[in-house]
Amino acid sequence: MSLKPHTPTLHDVAAAAGVSTATVSRCLNFPDQVSESTRINVICIINDLGYSPNFGAKAMAARRTNTIGAIIPTMENAIFARGLQAFQEELRLHGFTMLVASTSYCPNIEEEQIRSLVARGADALLLIGHERDPEIYRFLQTQGVPALVTWAFTPGSVRPSIGFNNRAAIYEMATEVIKLGHTKLALISAETAMNDRAKARHVGIQNAMTDAGLKPSSLQFIETTYNIEDGANAFEKLMKSDTRPTAVFCGNDVLAVGALRCAREMKISVPDDVSIIGFDDIELAQVAYPALTTVHVPHREMGRRAAIALANYVKEGTPIKAVELKARLVFRETLGPARKDLP
Amino acid sequence: MSLKPHTPTLHDVAAAAGVSTATVSRCLNFPDQVSESTRINVICIINDLGYSPNFGAKAMAARRTNTIGAIIPTMENAIFARGLQAFQEELRLHGFTMLVASTSYCPNIEEEQIRSLVARGADALLLIGHERDPEIYRFLQTQGVPALVTWAFTPGSVRPSIGFNNRAAIYEMATEVIKLGHTKLALISAETAMNDRAKARHVGIQNAMTDAGLKPSSLQFIETTYNIEDGANAFEKLMKSDTRPTAVFCGNDVLAVGALRCAREMKISVPDDVSIIGFDDIELAQVAYPALTTVHVPHREMGRRAAIALANYVKEGTPIKAVELKARLVFRETLGPARKDLP
DNA sequence: TTGTATGCGTTATCAA
DNA sequence: TTGATAACGCATACAA
Lengths: 343, 343
Prior knowledge:
homodimer, alpha/beta, 434 Repressor (Amino-terminal Domain), Rossmann fold, six-stranded parallel β-sheet, four-stranded parallel β-sheet, 12 strands, about 15% strand, elongated, DNA-binding
């Protein structure tokens, strides 16, 4: 059922102004190619009629949309939101509009969203992480839609990406943790299937253990979805096991904050009884009590750089160069030395 | 510069399959109007070619996009993100796609985004709050694009909305606070210009004061932008003034958490020295320490109901009915009785 | 500076 | 069940 009244078109404006549609079009797109008098006249009529160009028609005729799509796992927490906000702001400066879609960490939905954004005429796409069905990359190829991977920088990867080295970042943190005497380590991780970032973080910790003479197989590993509640549950399980770890890494700050809450409820002191380490450094991390030791990810910088790279590519064809940004360890209050009095 | 290889079109598929474009179109949109043999054949070719329909062309021909736009102040914190996620999930169930845009709380950007989404062919719009330039409502009217207001339910408003009564919710909370003996109240608010929700919350507290025999003019009022840092700064100013309040309301949880952090830094005990009250009940609120007393807003329910109303309106023309949801007071740890030993 | 005419990729109407 | 063909609203090459 269509309730639409007649929406004014270029044609209507042209008729009302007594000029051709081409002239009206030019008034909008190349104002200086039009005499001032007619331009003023046309603009007035445009305002009177409340005319606004039809995007679909415009896209079809111009074969470009000035739109860049971003597909992220979730908008529900700040992990991606901040980078995205920066991405959008920068894009706007370059005359592009951002379209967002979220996938709930589900590969099928991601594929659906990618197709949807491509069909909508996105000139390019921002993607999180490298790992996805090769079929998708092939699809993008045949559609001629460039895709930029962010949130990860994997040395030796085929596809250029703008991000940080997840493995190296957590390796560095794990090394510090081990230096503090921790030998019983655990990791509460996002599901690693189709998530190269989660995998890299897992491997990074194991690498650090190996290099420090610890057995990587001793790392207690729990995979879970990404909520505060999930972090709390996983942490509880860990604390009730008979091989209770003294340091718990969390795949992100949201999980870490859940763990922290659980510790408080269980009257387990952090960091005296157990250390908790997050990842991302979102607002939650500084607000949590005790304030969370975590890995700072340069979200905004990542979004900004990605926007610039994509905008230049679409506008000028400038090839996209991979950029490695540095993650930074942030030591706050949830990491302390390992207790010596425990068995 | 266009790097696009030739993207397969309906025409290409038709040629390859040896049928007309009409038949291919039917295979996609009305599969049962097509014989099984040709359908299978066509589908195969579609897959081979990696064909995907052009959204703009489709929208133009079908005069519908199955797209609903949502325009929110910001994605940076969880205030709107959660409701939006629910909105999107429900929309998806009804076969619609969501387009988001954010305004950074700026009316001009909001107007720009509204026009952009309308031009993109959004079948309907989700808006936050009632208050905006009447010109915009007129524009939507002439474009025939229905808009649903959420995050607010204002009795007697012209436009139907799905939300809660901001004034009543905070009135209820303020009444409880006053019952605890607080007489020196303050409010750290979002900027109230063009923000009916912020205004309503301001008025709600003043109403409660009046009804309790307090002078509403004694409410200390600070307007600020919406960040943790802003909350901290405003709180510090309040604490350093000579009419130091014993209870500080915050326009949202983000500001409240900033206030909380500032209190910790200033060694001011919450709630012994000062009570802090938030609004929204986002994740931050339960994670903060002490856990934040706040007003719980039914974000997800709001998003879901809005999606259903809009989907039914666009599909069946079902008129949109206003829905009032209930906000709920959540008493945690940051609210306590007023100290008697202070001057 | 302005106008004419054509194409963009679909859907939908009408015949066959 | 299928095929021509006319919209849909705009940009643009070309002509005036």
